[in-house]
Amino acid sequence: MDYAVLVENSNDIIQVVDFEGRVIYVNQMWRETFGYDNEDLKTFNFFNLLHDDCHCDCQSRIQRLLNGEVLPCFEVIFKTKDGRRITAEGSISLYREQGEPRGIQGFFRDITARFRTIFQSSVAGIAMLAPDGHFLQVNPAFCNALGYTEEELLGMKITDVTHPDDIEETLNRRSIARANRSRAIVCEKRYLRKDGSVFWAQLSSTWFFDADG
Question: What residues of the chain score a pLDDT lower than 50?
Fold first, then answer.
């Protein structure tokens, strides 16, 4: 059996990189998923593929492998060549040549569609906001709770659907969390529906920071 052919044509995303992030091998699914061709790979560095929030975790996992640990499967966020986010699930292990560790080999599967399904079908309202408060994505439950269509909300800010008496506190809480690089905010606040009615909801939010903060 030609295992090289199986690996090259696998539905899994397979990669081998050295400890500096230089590519030793990637399969066809890797190239199709992330959009890089063989010419790109000549100067490509694996660590540029990672979403900024995942860099520290990646370095920690590599060190744990070098310390002899066997790591369980985990989730990671990658960035494609055209800037899209890919959520993947998989595992990594040491890549060895003649018994010596030379890099990291990884086997991943794109589970972005699974997260999209959860986002769309969740009974809880979910929204993704830009740093200035504009809505970037909203799920059906969030739209239904507020009485707006998705198209309407994507042209609005979080302050547009926040009770006037809660706007200052909402903005202050966001500013403090961003300044302290606090990822999680949990609180109760009042929202305004399109028809003007008010309702209380528990808010649980998470910040995502890039390399520039």
Answer: 210-213
Instruction: Supply 75's token pair.
Output: 């989730």
Are residues 95 and 10 in contact, defined by beta-carbon separation less than 8 angstroms? Answer: no
Topology given in CATH for the domain delimited by 122-206: Beta-Lactamase (3.30.450)
In angstroms, rounded to a whole number, what is the distance separating the alpha carbons of residues 4 and 40?
22
Vertex 66 angle, CA 63 and 71, to 5°: 75
DSSP-based helix, strand, coil % in the chain, nearest 5: 35, 35, 30
The number of angstroms, rounded, from the C-alpha of 61 to the middle of its chain's C-alpha atoms is: 17
- Select 3-113's CATH number: 3.30.420.10, 3.40.50.10320, 3.40.50.1380, 3.30.450.20: 3.30.450.20
Q: What is the CB neighbour count within 10 angstroms for residue 71?
A: 12
Show me where the domains of the chain are located: 3-113, 122-206
CB 24 within 8 A of CB 95: yes
Residue 85, beta-bridge partner list: 79
Give whole-number Cα distances, 79 to 47, 52, 65, 137, in Å.
10, 9, 24, 18
pLDDT digits (tens, 9 = 90+) for 85-95: 898 999 999 99
Q: Is the pTM of this model over 0.85?
A: no
pLDDT at 208: 63
pLDDT confidence of residue 183: 58
Give, in degrees to the nearest 5, the angle at Cα 78 between 39 and 151. 115
